[in-house]
């Protein structure tokens, strides 16, 4: 019987969740759902010095907004809790002790000053200091000291760390779903710290123990963890546990394609790198979020899926269900994925067109009401949106595209006025005003038939009438069909605007 797929997203609460982290969560979520498995949220907060107030809730809110509900984890307890590492710290010492007992780890008492001296001494000789097989017997640890000396130091309350004893002269054969087979010479590995005398494990030990106890079958994480893969494999072997399968996702690169995408890139080029707005509790600095910038969660999920994954077809628009169906880790690239802010807007524009006008009207209504200091009918707002939405990328674009549906122009575009107004324009518009006044049933069809009929029978060029008429209604030569605008603002308002342009220009 094959094991049930269980994956985890395990961020540290050290600040807002970068979109690289959201992409990692998404790939874990897609993989779990594709295989009928569980998606787990674990908070890795062993480093209490870097803990930031509010960051954990931010992570939970970001996953919710993206439409990736967890099956178990922080906020949704399951059989494998607790899901915060700080609440599991009593667990880890027994596993550190187990590794010492089996000879796979040892106590090290070297002070920070001693290690710093060795580091600088190596640098002066043009070498790099690595704490491992070639020098550990010369340093202060339970391998170079007798059992009695070691115990005496521990009893005296000396600070220590527990280090992993990396093997000498071995070749590790590691497997990665995305990167294939990896060979590592153990002689270049350092003896990583697993546990500190303050009772806290390092990331490496806590991570392995938790993944094992939570029965994680696949570890899908960022490329930055690739250098830790050798140690993690060895820890599984040292405990006699079956290792999960690993997949290391490519980096998300700057829009230039050079270097990892950072918050600075977003600030410089004017796009967010966080899913939700974040207010720093220490500095009160506010960082922009995709949600607050007007992106739809579906658009964000769609563009993040394409940062490193390729469906192998020309299709670019995927719903979450389609992504789950088509997602395959074997189609994730090794190379870094360049972030394209314009492409993210392209996705948002697409999802804008898919939204119901009523839904967009609800989002746009507060903006209209604030601009006009009035309570505008949602249905009317929705009708206006329906006429312009193909030109919009964000809800915030709507005011520029629809303001003339709500308020008459107070000025007229100078360039457009010169183009539209000729010697006979006033006379033509006066005639149009009279014709409009005579239309009984003021529907789009009747307005169109009447005005077009008059233009044709008088053998006037369409532009001579339609351009100044549009200018009168909008204040510029833009907007949807003129007859739609007239129907929306009504007969009286249409006449008023035509009369106004005649007297003004």
Structure characterization notes:
The structure is a single chain. With 505 residues, the protein is mostly helical. The chain folds into 4 domains: 6-86 and 251-305, Rossmann fold, CATH 3.40.50.620; 88-249, Glutamyl-tRNA Synthetase, domain 3 (Alpha-Beta Complex), CATH 3.90.800.10; 355-406; 414-504, Arc Repressor Mutant, subunit A. 45% of the residues lie in helices and 10% in strands. It has helices spanning 19-34, 55-65, 89-101, 112-124, 147-155, 203-213, 229-239, 263-269, 297-305, 320-326, 341-354, 357-372, 378-388, 398-406, 414-420, 425-437, 444-457, 462-474, 482-489, 491-504; strands at residues 6-9, 38-41, 72-73, 105-108, 161-164, 171-176, 180-185, 193-196, 218-222, 245-249, 252-253, 278-279, 286-287, 337-338. The strands form 6 sheets. A 3-stranded parallel β-sheet has the order 1-2-3. A 3-stranded antiparallel β-sheet has the order 4-5-8. Strand 2, helix 2 and strand 3 form a beta-alpha-beta unit. Helix 12 packs across helix 14 and helix 15 (414-420) packs antiparallel against helix 18 (462-474). The relative contact order is 0.08. The mean pLDDT is 95. It is an enzyme of class 6 (ligase). One of its GO terms (biological process) is glutamyl-tRNA aminoacylation. It catalyses: tRNA(Glu) + L-glutamate + ATP = L-glutamyl-tRNA(Glu) + AMP + diphosphate. This is Glutamate--tRNA ligase.
């Amino acid at each position: 019987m094959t094991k049930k797929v269980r994956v985890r997203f395990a961020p540290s609460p050290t600040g807002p969740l970068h979109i690289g982290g959201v992409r990692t969560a998404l790939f874990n979520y897609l993989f779990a759902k594709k295989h009928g498995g569980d998606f787990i949220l674990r908070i890795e907060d062993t480093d209490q010095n870097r803990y930031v107030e509010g960051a954990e809730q931010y992570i939970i809110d970001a996953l919710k907004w993206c439409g990736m509900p967890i099956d178990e984890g922080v906020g949704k307890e399951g059989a494998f809790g607790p899901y915060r590492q700080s609440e599991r710290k009593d667990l880890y010492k027994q596993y550190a002790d187990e590794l010492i007992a089996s000879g796979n780890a040892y106590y090290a008492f070297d002070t920070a000053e001693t290690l710093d001296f060795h580091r600088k001494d190596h640098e002066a000789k043009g070498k790099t200091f690595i704490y491992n097989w070639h020098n550990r017997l010369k340093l202060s640890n339970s391998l170079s000291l007798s059992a009695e000396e070691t115990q005496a130091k521990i009893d005296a309350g000396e600070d220590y760390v527990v280090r992993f004893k990396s093997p000498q002269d071995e070749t590790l054969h590691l497997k990665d779903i995305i990167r294939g087979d990896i060979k590592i010479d153990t002689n270049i590995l350092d003896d990583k710290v697993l546990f500190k005398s303050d009772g806290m494990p390092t990331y490496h030990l806590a991570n392995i123990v938790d993944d094992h106890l939570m029965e994680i079958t696949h570890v899908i994480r960022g490329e930055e963890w690739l250098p830790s893969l050798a140690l993690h494999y060895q820890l599984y072997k040292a405990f006699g546990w079956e290792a999960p399968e690993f997949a290391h996702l490519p980096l998300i690169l700057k829009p230039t394609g050079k270097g990892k995408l950072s918050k600075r890139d977003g600030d410089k080029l004017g796009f967010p790198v966080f899913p939700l707005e974040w207010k720093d509790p220490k500095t009160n600095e506010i960082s922009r979020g995709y949600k607050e910038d007007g992106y739809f969660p579906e658009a964000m999920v769609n563009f993040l899926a394409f940062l490193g994954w390729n469906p192998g077809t020309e299709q670019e628009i995927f719903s979450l269900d389609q992504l789950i169906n088509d997602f395959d880790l074997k189609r994730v690239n090794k190379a870094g994925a360049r972030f394209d802010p314009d492409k993210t807007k392209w996705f948002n524009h697409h999802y804008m067109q898919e939204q119901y006008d009523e839904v967009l009207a609800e989002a746009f209504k507060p903006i209209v009401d604030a601009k006009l200091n009035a309570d505008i009918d949602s249905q009317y707002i929705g009708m206006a949106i329906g006429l312009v939405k193909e030109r919009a990328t964000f809800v915030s674009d709507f005011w520029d595209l629809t303001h003339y549906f709500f308020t008459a122009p107070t000025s007229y575009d100078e360039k457009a006025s010169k183009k539209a107004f000729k010697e006979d324009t006033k006379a033509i518009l006066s005639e149009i005003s009279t014709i409009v006044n005579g239309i009984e049933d003021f529907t789009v069809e009747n307005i169109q038939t009447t005005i077009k009929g008059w233009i044709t029978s008088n053998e006037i060029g369409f532009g001579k009438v339609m351009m100044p008429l549009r200018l009168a209604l909008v204040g510029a030569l833009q907007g949807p069909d003129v007859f739609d605008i007239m129907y929306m603002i009504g007969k009286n308002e249409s006449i008023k605007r035509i009369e106004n342009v005649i007297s003004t220009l």
